[in-house]
Amino acid sequence: MSINWKEDKNGVHFTKHSNFRIEHAPHHTFGEMVKIVKGPSFGSHLFGKRYINIAKAIGAIDIVCGEKLIGKGLNQAVAEMADLGLITPSEMTGDVSIIVEPHYPLTDAAL
Length: 111
Known about the structure:
Layout: E1 6-7, E2 13-17, E3 20-24, E4 34-38, E5 50-51, H1 54-84, H2 89-92
């Protein structure tokens, strides 16, 4: 993985991934350690967290971004189902959970 590290005016090495700022924060044991410093508000729980290398930090960012996309997709799917008349407006309020049934019978061997 090729990372384009930049240096800010204070001499701190950083890179950006999905609008998150990742700074190089070496430790005497882990020389490749990085820290997520800034980013969108939906990922604020990642700010200040340290990861042993850039790949782990990028993985954490990708998970948060993926979860946001899944949430948006659910809201869009519920709105489309309401437009088609598959669900009523009363079913749209509150927590919408979708249960996916397997298309094949589960046996004890599969569990």
